[in-house]
Each structure stands twice: as structure tokens, then as C-alpha cells.
Design goal:
The protein contains nine helices and eleven strands. The radius of gyration is 19 Å and the shape is elongated. It has an eleven-stranded antiparallel beta sheet with strand order 4-5-3-6-7-8-2-1-9-10-11, sandwiched between helices. The longest helix is centred in the middle third of the chain and has 17 residues. Helices cover about 30% and strands about 25% of the residues. It starts with 10 loop residues before the first strand and ends with a strand.
Amino acid sequence: MAKKHKTADDYLYHLFIHMNAVNQFVIFSGLTLKQFFGAVESIKNILLLNQSYEDGLFNMHTQLDYIPGDEIKNFVKKMEDSNRDLCWVDFSDEKQVNQLTPMEQAELLYLGHKKEPVTSPFFPKLKNRYVYCSSANEQTTKVYFHFLEDFEMLVSTLINNIIKENGGNGGFWRRKSKERIPKIEAADLKAYSHYFKEGALVSIYKAEKPKNHFGVEIRTLSDYDYPDEVWNDLIMILKQDYDELIKLQ
């Protein structure tokens, strides 16, 4: 039986993913800064590599602004209203930043400018788990993951957050325990990594029947070199059969 195609309005959310496992980065389109911070483990501080922030702190050693943990929430909120490119790395303590050599500082500046590392995007002194670089014009976010398992955790948590936000109406749903809310485990995404390596669109929808069931469709988009083209062709792409359907109930 032919699959019944949905319209764009039937979906809750779309996310484009293109993984480069060798170089430990993933290019996203559709991922916001707020969504990122809402889906990863708590980050202590972030060092800004390509912009200033008046409500942040200034590191004299690197001449770069940084955002302490207690200011990150406000920073994310302000960046939501901004159309600026952003590039940062996380770190745990400013003492580590003050130990960076001139060469390491130069590599950080290059990373902020080119959005790619000279050697490695991970700095032993900073012990950073991430490098986050977004481009407003290209509608992309490039994230380097020190541990690729963090990528799976990010995407699974993001999907689960979308489901929670769209968990249905009525008292019956709200009386149910959190365990009753459909969810996907990070480990489950390993089975679909080959799609992400080619470039794929992840689309989430809520099923009409049975109630409180959700679906996650995965479509391979290996022909797209520029993620912004995906959004231009979204209606056409959604008419194509999905490669995988993950049912959550």
C-alpha cells in the first residue's frame, strides 16, 4: 500500500543533519541555540571566539569575552533576537584559559574565523566538549563533539523535548506520569547513523490515532550540498517516501 504523504502543516518540527564522524563534527539546520542548551548537559562557561557580549566577562589573557554559567540563560535569550553569527567553545575554569599559549590562542582565533580547526578543535587545557559555530546567512549550526555520543544525546533529547511540548491537550494526558510520555533513547539513534553521514532530514509528527503516539521520519538528502536549499524544497521533499520511520508510543 502506498504511503500517505503528509503536508508541511502536519509536522511539528524538522531538523537537517549531516555528520562527519571522522572529523567529529555535525552540521545542523533548524537547530537553535536555545534548543542546543536545552538538550546537552550543563555547561559551566563559554568563551566567545568571534564577538563581544556586554553582559559577559572579559578575559585579559586572551582578550576575549566569556559567559559564566549563571549568565548563559540570559545570553541565550538575547541571542534569540540577534541575527549574528556565533562561535564559542566551552570550558570549566578561567584558570585554564589563562594557561593558553600564544599558539593555542591563535588556533582559537582561526577556529572562530574559519569555523574549522588548524589541528584539533579540542584543547586539553580547556577540556572542551564542544565547539559551536552558527551562520545566520547559511542557516546552519556546525558543532564539533569531543564525544560523538553527545550528538546522539543532543538529538534524542531534542526530539523528546519537542514531544513534551506537543504532548496533547486535556487533563488525562497531564495526569499521566512522565514515563508515559513517548520518548526515544540516545542509543536508538546509532542504528540510523548511516543516514546522518549522508545528510538527512528528521521530521517529527503527532499521529492522529492512536492518541499520544508520535512518529519520526528520516529522509536521506545526499544530493543537497547547502542546507538552506532543503527549506526551499521542503514541500517537495516531504512528498518523497521516507527511508525510515521511528514510531514512539
